[in-house]
Amino acid sequence: MKFFVDTGEINEIRELAATGMLDGVTTNPSLIAKSGKQFIPLIEEICSVVTGPVSAEVASTDYETMQKEADKLSKIAKNIAVKVPLTEAGLKVCRNLADKGIMVNVTLCFSAVQAILAAKAGAAFVSPFIGRLDDIGQDGMQLIADIRQIYDNYPNFKTEILAASIRHPQHVLMAAKMGADVSTIPASTIKALYKHPLTDKGLAAFVEDWKKTGQSIL
Ligand code: G3P
User: Fold this and answer.
1) How many structural domains does the chain have?
2) What per-residue string of b and e applies to 61-84 under the rule 16 or more CB within 10 Å gives b?
3) Is 7 in the pocket of ligand 1 (CB under 6 A)?
4) 201 an active-site residue?
5) Assessment of whether the complete model's pTM goes beyond 0.90
6) Model pLDDT for residues 136-195, shown as the tens digit of each residue
7) Ligand 1 atom 3: residue of nearest CA
8) For residue 217, how many other CB atoms are within 10 A of its CB?
9) Half-sphere exposure of 50 (CA within 13 A, CB side)
10) 98-117 pLDDT, tens per residue?
11) Could you give the CA distance from residue 103 to residue 188 in angstroms, rounded to a whole number?
């Protein structure tokens, strides 16, 4: 499973990139607003830090303006994935970009039939929002399972399932079990994946016992 970080914070991206665990980055207008940074220079900087796909989202909702924004974003770097909403206009833009070999991440996917449309439009990624479905009492993970089953029925669908709106390690675990290709995860949740109390306890015991040997490896 690939790990993308879902953030607009360049320091978080640099820190995670240094771990060798990071396969890409996703941003959205809310994360850009939270960063307080200018959008285009920030995306340029992210693309220089990360070699994998970097999702940059259009801001307009009408087809003509969205297409212009998408064209501009697509020229920022080779690893840009233009992010468009799962709307009729968004999927038209997706088709146009996909035909030019540009990666598109179709976002705000909340149903399996929407995911079929994204695949038919040539999306490189579709982003089902797990946490937001759970928030309204639906089963986000069932959506991942449904999309996986459908995409596996049609080998001509090349779209990767990018589990988004992930809130905690259990979401990452379930997305992996359901066969999502990618999870986009907040930096704090990626860090939480390392943690287990028995790892901490076991390591503390090893450190103490090693001291008793009086030895040094170096
Ligand atoms: O980037 C899209 C998605 O991951 C947003 O997550 O937590 O705002 O629902 P959230």
Assistant:
1) 1
2) eebeebbebbeebbebbebbbbbb
3) no
4) no
5) yes
6) 999 999 999 999 999 999 999 999 999 999 999 999 999 999 999 999 999 999 999 999
7) 165
8) 4
9) 32
10) 999 999 999 999 999 999 99
11) 27
> What CATH number is associated with residue 36?
3.20.20.70
Instruction: Give the pair of three-digit tokens for residue 196.
Output: 């287990």
- Which two tokens mark 40? 């285009």
CB-ligand 1 contact for 105 (6 Å cutoff): no
Decide if 75 is inside a domain: yes
Q: How far is the CA of 83 from the centre of ligand 1 (A)?
A: 13
Q: Is 129's C-beta closer than 6 angstroms to any atom of ligand 1?
A: yes
Residue 136 lies in a domain: yes
Residue 218 lies in a domain: no
Q: How far apart are the first and last CA of the chain?
A: 36
Residue 29 resides in a domain: yes
Question: Rounded CA gap, 197 and 15, in Å?
Answer: 23
Of 132, 138, 183, the residue with max ligand 1 atoms within 8 A of its CB, to mutate for a pocket test, comes to: 132
**Protein residue with least CA distance to atom 10, ligand 1:** 165
Cα–ligand 1 centroid distance for 91 (angstroms): 20
Residue whose token pair is 């079990």: 177
Question: Is the minimum distance from the CB of 89 to ligand 1 under 6 angstroms?
Answer: no
Residues spanned by the domain of 69: 2-213
Pocket probe mutation, ligand 1, options 34, 109, 129, max atoms within 8 Å of Cβ:
129
